[in-house]
Design goal:
Layout (H helix, E strand, L loop, with lengths): L6 E3 L2 E3 L2 H4 L2 H12 L4 H8 L3 H22 L3 H18 L1
Antiparallel strand pairs: 1-2
């Protein structure tokens, strides 16, 4: 099965959030999944405190939310992009 790198929707380029994460963040997500979501287990694996793991997870969640917000533009954003496309087409003629 071929992996999809991105797609265009309503004139916007889409990329999956996981692809936009750093290698370090992806490794953290993988360890989190393999630990069945146990922050206590992750803290032990990384040799850091539970609150530090919780902070890292919270920051990662915030980063993913930003990626998802960019992935689904607002109606205004879609109208703006449609207008830009229309203007480009008019100036090309």
């Amino acid at each position: 099965m071929k992996e999809r790198q991105g797609e265009r929707v309503a004139g916007f380029q889409r990329t999956d959030w996981i692809q936009r994460l750093s290698e370090e963040d992806r490794a953290f997500v993988k360890r989190f999944i393999l630990a069945s979501g146990s922050l206590k287990e992750l803290a032990a694996a990384y040799g850091i405190s539970y609150p530090t793991v919780r902070l890292r997870l919270d920051r990662l969640i915030a980063k993913i939310k930003v990626f998802e917000d960019e992935r689904f533009p607002t109606e205004f954003g879609e109208l703006l992009e449609a207008h830009r496309t229309e203007v480009r087409n008019e100036t090309a003629v």
